[in-house]
Specification:
This protein is α/β, with parallel strands linked by helices and about 160 residues long. It has one domain (about 5-160): Alpha/Beta hydrolase fold, catalytic domain (Rossmann fold, 3-Layer(aba) Sandwich). It contains 5 helices and 6 strands; from the N terminus they run βαβαβαβββαα. The longest helix is centred in the C-terminal third of the chain and has 16 residues, at about 145-160. It is globular and about 45 Å long.
Length: about 160
């Protein structure tokens, strides 16, 4: 089925969220439509999401770091078929997963205050990203962790196959 993926960068935009662009390209290669937005661009992204939703697309949301706040806000207020969050900070505003509006929600978390949040918010799948923990560096690398990239592609592929 047709699937649109709205992806949200963390704080610092392109400089600290460069891993989203190769991931977006992988999703496009398997047949999904995918765009990358800054975390503050929820109003613009919401217009795109609604346009795709009204034309029959399934909606997937993917957020990294502070971009997870945008995903959690969007799924809580408008719903989606798939919400994916990577490295939710314990410092950010939390909107629990709304099971009535969101069909499936996945969290990849790491260690440390910047990456270990969200584990009590109602995600269907919670996976810890393996590896050593180095403050800040690990957080920046979680977006390109092979587990996260591979899981994302598989989850979106499942939506496309429905």
């Amino acid at each position: 089925m047709k699937t649109y993926v709205a992806m949200f960068q963390g704080q610092g935009g392109f400089w600290f969220s460069q891993g989203l662009y190769p991931l977006r390209d992988k999703l496009r290669k398997i047949g999904a439509l995918a765009d990358v937005f800054r975390y503050v661009d929820e109003p613009t992204a919401h217009v795109c999401i609604n346009n795709y939703r009204t034309t029959g697309y399934q909606i997937a949301l993917w957020g990294y770091s502070l971009g997870t706040s945008t995903v959690l806000y969007e799924q809580n207020h408008h719903g989606c078929d798939l919400a994916m969050c990577c490295a939710v900070s314990k410092l950010e505003t939390e909107w629990p997963i709304d099971k009535a509006k969101t069909k499936r929600a996945i969290l990849w978390h790491g260690k440390g205050v910047l990456s270990a949040g969200g584990t009590n918010m109602g995600f269907d799948v919670i996976r810890e990203i393996p590896g050593p923990w180095v403050p800040v560096v690990s957080h920046l690398m979680y977006q390109i962790a092979p587990m996260v990239v591979d899981d994302t592609v598989l989850e979106v592929q499942e939506l496309l196959n429905i």
